[in-house]
Amino acid sequence: MSASVLRVSDLAVGLHLPGREPRMLLDNVSLDLGKGEVLGLVGESGSGKSLFCRALVRLLPSENIRITEGRIMLGDRDLAKATEAEMLGVRGGRVGMIFQNPTSHLDPVMTIGDQLIEGIRYHQKLDGGAARREALAIARQVGFTEPERQLDSYAHEFSGGMRQRAMIGVALSCNPEILVADEPTTALDVTIQAQILQLLLDIRSERGLSIILITHDLGIVAQTCDRIAVMREGRIVEQGKKRDLLRSPAHSYTKALIGSHPSMPISAGEMTATPPSKAAATDKPLLEVEEVNVRFAGAGNLFGGRSGAVHAVADVSLKIMPGETVGIVGESGSGKSTLARAVLGLTPIASGNVTFDGTSLRHDRVAFLTRLRREAAMVFQDPYNALNPRLAIGQMLAEVLKVQARTPPDQIPTRVCELLDLVDLGHEFAGRRPRSMSGGQCQRAGIARALAVEPRLIIADESTAALDVTIQAQILDLFRVLKRKMNLTLLFIAHDLAIVRNLCDRVVVMRGGHIVEQGGSAQVFEHPADPYTQALIRAIPDIDPDKPLLPQAAREIA
Amino acid sequence: MSVRALAVGRMGWRWRLGRQPALVIGATILTVFVVAALLAPYISPYDPIAQDIEFRLQNPSWAHPFGTDNFGRDVFSRVIWGARIDLQIALLGVIFPFVIGTLVGTVAGFFGGIVDALLMRLIDVILAFPFLVLVLSIIAILGPGLGSFYIAMALVGWVSYARLIRAHVLVLKNSDYAIAAVSLGFSRSRIMFRHLLPNAIAGSVVFSMSDAVLVLLNGAAISYLGLGVQPPIAEWGIMVAEGQPFITTAWWITLFPGLSIVMLAFGFSLFGDALGDALGVKE
Fold first, then answer.
1. Roughly how many angstroms between the first and final C-alpha of chain A, as a whole number?
2. pLDDT tens, B129-156?
3. Which chain B residues contact residue A390 at CB under 8 A?
4. Which candidate, A336, A254, A382, A309, places its Cα nearest to that of A509?
5. 3-state helix, strand, coil in chain B (%, to 5)
6. Contacts of residue A114, Cβ cutoff 8 Å, sequence gap at least 6
7. Contact between chains at A373 and B184 (C-beta distance less than 8 A)
8. What local confidence, expressed as pLDDT, does residue A273 receive?
9. What are the strands of the beta sheet with A227-232, ordered from one edge?
10. Cα separations (Å) of B115 from A530, B106, B256?
C-alpha cells in the first residue's frame, strides 16, 4: 500500500473531572493508515477502541474527555488542533463512520434516499437531479436490489443487513477517504455478516477507501484486514501485518485473544474430558421432543380475522440422552429459542409432545411441569436482563432454594456459598446487585441460579452471545467443568457455530422453524449434508486467513 | 468503617444534597407543614374555633399575624390546624387509590387476556366521566363529609395507578428474569409481587407525589363547595370559601390559607421530581 492517509502519533485522551486527578483513557496511541488499507482494531469492551475512533473526528462523548497530547495528521492537517468549523468538513466528508446498530443511527422519519442525498448535496455540492442520480449509484454499489424503490423506503422497512447496507451508503454519500466501521457486523447473523464484510472489501477496491475496522472478533480481522492493531486498556499492545501477527503474536494478551477464539481447535485434554455421549445407546432419552409445532397468531384486524400467523417451530423431533451436550444452531428467526421455551413449558405448543424422563406433557401436563421446574433450568442471553435488578445475588439464590424446598432453611446460607464456589464467584458477591457487576459475573450468577435447582438438564439460550471473547471462553470452560462435575445434560442454543462445534457432542441445525440437519458435531461440521448447513459453516470467519470467507457462501443464502 | 471512610461518606452525602436543590426545598416545605400539623396544639396561639366577635376582621398584627376572620377567629391558628386536615386529605386521598390501582394494574398486566380486557374496559368507563363530576356524584350519594371524599377518591383515582403499573408489568413480565422465575417454579403471586412489582412501582411512587397535589386541590375544592369538611373545623378550602364575601375588605382571610395550599402543593411537586430522579424514572 502507498503513502499513509492518516497518521496518528502519541495520541492521549484523558477524563478530566473537576477536583480529581485526570484519568487516562487512551495513552500513547500511534497508528498509520495507508491508502486503500484495511486496518483491524481489535480489543474487548472497554479497551478504548471506540473512543479512539471518536477521538479521530473529535466527537468525544463528554466535555470532560479531552485530547491532551499527540497529533492526528489527516494529509497535512492536524485534526487534534483543527477548529470546530474545519472539523465539520472532515466529519463525513473525509472520515466517514458506520456503527454497530444501524437502527439507532439512521433517521427513522427520513427516507433512505433523502439521507443519502443530504450527504451528497452537503459534501459534494451537487444539485437535486445529480444528487438523486449519485444516490442511485451508491445504492446500487452497496447492494440494493431495487434502488429506485428502496430509496423511498424508511429504515424500519429494512432488515438488519439492509439497514447496515443503507448506513454504509450514507457514509459513502459524503465521499470520504477513510471509513471507520465500529463493530459493523456484531448484531448480524453470520451469513449476513459475510455479505457485509465482502461489501466493505468491494467498496475498498472500487473507491480506494482506507478502512479502520473495529471488532472484537479476530476471525473477522483475519478474513478482511491487511494489518492488525490490538488494543487493551487504552494502549496499543501490538500491531503488525495480519499474517505475522496471527502466526507469531508477541504480546501475551494477543496470544490469549487468539487462544480463546472459538474457531481454534480445543486441546486434546479437553476433548477427552467430555467423552461424546458415553451411554447414548443403552439409556432411554432424558428429553424427547416429538413433532412439536409452535404457532404465534398474527395481529388480528378490526373484524377479528387473524392474518400472518407465524409457524415458529414446525414438526421438530429431537432426542437428548442423559449426559449429552446438544447444540442447536440457526440464524435469528430460525425458531431455536422458541423451541427451548416450548420444551420448558414456557410457550404453549400447538401440537406434538415433549417427554422429560418418562413424564409426558401430553398425558400429564401438571406432573410434567412440576418435574421440569425441579429438574431443569435455563440460562439466558442478556446477563443483566436475566437477573432481577432489585435483588442481591445472595437473596436471589436463597429465594430459589427456599421455593424449591429441598434445602433445610438453616442450610441455605451455606448452600448459597457452595453455589457461588461452583461458578467461581467470591462469597462477597452474595451481597452485590447485578448493577455493580460485570457481564461475565452476572452470567456466572445466572448459572448459579440454574444450578440451585440441582438440575439434570440445563438449557442455555445464547448464553455467551453478549460477552467478550475471553469472558466467553471462561463461561464455556465453566459449562464444561460443571457438566463433568455434576453429570449435567446440556442443551446449548447459539447462533455462533464455532462455539457449538467446540462444546457440543451433537448439533441440530434449524432454519425457518425446521430442523434441516442433525448429527455428531464432527460429522456435521466436516461433512455437512444440507446446503444451508454448508453455507452456514463456510460463513464463519476463521482465524486462519488462508481459509477464506467464501463470498459465494453468503450469496447462496441471500 | 474507618473514620476517614465515614468522613468521605458524609461529604458525599452533603455533596449530593447540594446538587439537588429540588429535593432540599421540597423536603423542607413538607417537613415544615408536617411539624406544624403535629405540634398544632402547642404552637397555635389561639383556639382555632373560638369565636371572639369583638375582634372580628382584624388586620394582621403582632397579636394576630394573619389577622382574624368574620367570627373573630385567629387565621394563623386556623391555618396551622388546617395543616392537619389537609395533610390527612393528601395522604389518605392518595394511599387508597395507590394501593387499589397497584393491585389491579399488576393483576391486569400479569394475567392479560380476559382479566386484562375487563379491567381495562372498566377503567375506560371511569375515565369517560369528568373526574370531578364523578367524585361529586359519589359524595352526593354518600352524603357530605371527609369519609365520603376518601371513598370517592378511592373509587375514581385508582385508574391512573392501574394503567401506569400495568404498562410496566406488561414489559417486565417478558424480561428474562421473569421467565427465569417461571422456569424455576415460583408461584404466580411471588413473581407478581416480589419480582415484577418492585421493579414496576417507581413510576407510580413519583406519580403519587404529583397526584397528592391534585387530591389536595380537589379536597379544598370539595370543602369549598360545602361537600367535604364541615364548618367550623379549620380546613384551608373552607377558609378560602368563608373568606370569599370579604375578599375586598379583609383579603387576609383567603390569602393565607390559599398560599398554604399552593406551598404544600409546591412542596409535593418538587419532592416528587427529586424522587423521580433518585429512582431513575424517566417521564
1. 33
2. 998 899 999 999 999 888 999 999 999 9
3. 198-199
4. A336
5. 75, 0, 25
6. none
7. yes
8. 40
9. A95-98, A178-182, A210-215, A38-42, A227-232, A235-241
10. 47, 11, 48
